[in-house]
Design brief:
By secondary structure, the chain is mainly β. It has a domain at about 15-20 and about 115-240. It is about 5% helix and about 45% strand. It contains 1 helix and 16 strands. It has one helix at about 145-155, and strands at about 5-10, 15-20, 55, 60, 65-70, 75, 90-95, 105-110, 130-135, 160-165, 165-170, 175-180, 185-195, 200-210, 215-225, 230-240. It has an 8-stranded antiparallel beta sheet. Strands 1-2 form a two-stranded antiparallel ribbon. It is globular, with a radius of gyration of 18 Å. Residues about 1-45 and about 110-125 have low confidence and may be disordered.
């Protein structure tokens, strides 16, 4: 039975560790030993997959890699671009070596060139989506997400987005600010990691902003991964 433990919330989404045993369904991508190699940072070839990878009996979520398939051990970071979310690449320019000798980098968003960012609503690399959004849980969410909604979004299920150029600052309820950047397609991704005496976990949220004027909206799809299990929590937000 899946059990979730809220450890603390240091930012908008907070930090969650899962202490559980669970079965993982769905087909995962190939493990981190295969697929495309990481970039040195001088060029950017983004991942077009979903960023998951098989790891023994587990499935590593985006921005994690399979450290030990025998132990089904996923760790934060990437050894190849297929460990990253869609539109990201594995930056190995400042790679660190793990205990098994693998070079581990970080997932970064590809920065679009000026020639590819046609149709931007602001004349720059992204649209303008600042404002307060009201969120509701969307299809595809795990049943446990209803119990976690107050930690994710606050009691009012409302989040405020402050935007400077293409940098977003998100605050929900009484939690702090979460920083991320959106690209020319008005997509962004944030990652929150935690390690405590109760376990370790990560929350990776993908954002897609759409619309114009008073009809702006955002989808927020969050993958919560912890010791032994994972959850998908999806939310739809509309501008107040």
């Amino acid at each position: 039975m899946l059990r979730t433990a809220v450890l603390s919330f240091a930012s908008v989404i907070g930090v969650l560790a899962l202490a559980c045993t669970s079965s993982t369904t769905g087909a995962g991508a190939s493990s981190s030993s295969g697929g495309s190699s990481g970039s040195s940072g001088s060029s950017c070839t983004p991942n077009t997959g979903n960023g998951t990878s098989a790891c023994g009996s587990a499935v590593c979520q985006p921005t994690t890699y399979c450290s030990d398939s025998f132990l089904s051990d996923c760790k934060n970071g990437c050894t190849a671009t297929n460990n990253c979310g869609s539109g990201q690449f594995c930056d190995l320019s400042n790679a660190q070596q793990d205990e098994r000798g693998a070079k581990v980098g970080t997932c970064q968003s590809c920065t679009p060139s000026s020639s590819s960012s046609s149709g931007s609503t602001s004349g720059g690399a992204c649209g303008q989506y600042a404002g307060a959004y009201h969120f509701v849980q969307a299809a595809g969410s795990a049943s446990q997400c209803s119990d976690l909604q107050s930690q994710f979004l606050g009691s009012g299920a409302e989040c405020n987005f402050v935007q400077t150029d293409c940098k977003m600052s998100q605050s929900c309820g009484n939690s702090g600010n979460l920083q991320f950047t959106i690209d020319a397609s008005n997509k962004g991704q944030s990652t929150t990691n935690v390690t405590s005496s109760q376990g370790s976990g990560s929350i990776v949220c993908s954002y897609q902003f759409e619309g114009e004027g008073t009809l702006k909206s955002v989808t927020m799809n969050c993958q919560i991964t912890g010791t032994g299990g994972s959850l998908n929590c999806n939310y739809d937000g509309t501008l107040n």
